[in-house]
Structure formats: structure tokens, C-alpha cells
Design brief:
The chain is mostly helical. It has one domain. The chain is 81% helix and 0% strand. The chain has five helices and no strands. It is elongated, with a radius of gyration of 15 Å. The mean pLDDT is 86.
């Protein structure tokens, strides 16, 4: 099992890679790829929160991951300088990817949830 520090480092590294990808692209990111990138970030966020907040309720873990990833998606858009409709579409593509992973964490089998979220009551 991963430790709390390793999971948090993977989460931060994942977001830095997404940000670097957006800065290198220069223009509007491909919406499908952006949604998938933030879905992968949400997977790392849930694993990190599951290990760092082991005593948290499962619903709180999912909400914390949703909020953390959504805030980082907004910061990403602000840093890359996207504006208007392009920024809105990019943000909502990221939010859709995040929400699908959070929903999958809710509906996943108990064994997978215990391994993924790192707890017996997950």
C-alpha cells in the first residue's frame, strides 16, 4: 500500500504534468484529453485522501477529492490564460472527468473501494 506522502506527491505531480501540458499546448486543450487527464488526477486524489484522511467518512473523501480537483482545474485555467467560452468548456470537461471518477468510487465494489480509498469502511 502507498503511504500518505507518496499518494500526495503523486497527486501534486499529476497536476503539475497537466499544467505543463496545457502551457506547452498554448491554445485550447483537446476537451476529451482534458477530461481524461483530470479523471486520472481524481483517481490519484481519492487514493491520497483515502490514505491521508483514513478516519474520514467515505462521502467526505469523495467530496474533498471533487473540490480539490475542481479548484485545481480552475487554477489551471487561470494560469494558462484561457478566457470566455474556451475556458468554460475546458473547465467543464475537467469537471465531468472528475465527477465520473467520484461517482465510480461511490459505485465500485467494496473490495476495490477498500484498496483504492484505503480503509475498511470505504
Amino acid at each position: 500500500m502507498f503511504s500518505c506522502v507518496a499518494a500526495a506527491a503523486g497527486f501534486v505531480l499529476g497536476w503539475v504534468l497537466i499544467l505543463f501540458w496545457h502551457l506547452q499546448g498554448g491554445g485550447s486543450p483537446v476537451l476529451t484529453a482534458n477530461g481524461l487527464a483530470y479523471a486520472m488526477l481524481a483517481i490519484c486524489a481519492l487514493a491520497g485522501i483515502g490514505r491521508c484522511g483514513a478516519k474520514w467518512l467515505p462521502a467526505l473523501k469523495r467530496v474533498a477529492a471533487l473540490i480539490a480537483c475542481a479548484v485545481l482545474a480552475g487554477v489551471d485555467i487561470g494560469i494558462t490564460g484561457l478566457q470566455g467560452e474556451v475556458a468554460q468548456k475546458t473547465f467543464f470537461a475537467a469537471l465531468l472527468g472528475i465527477a465520473l471518477v467520484v461517482l465510480a468510487a461511490r459505485l465500485a465494489p467494496a473490495g476495490l473501494r477498500r484498496r483504492w480509498l484505503g480503509g475498511e469502511d470505504a
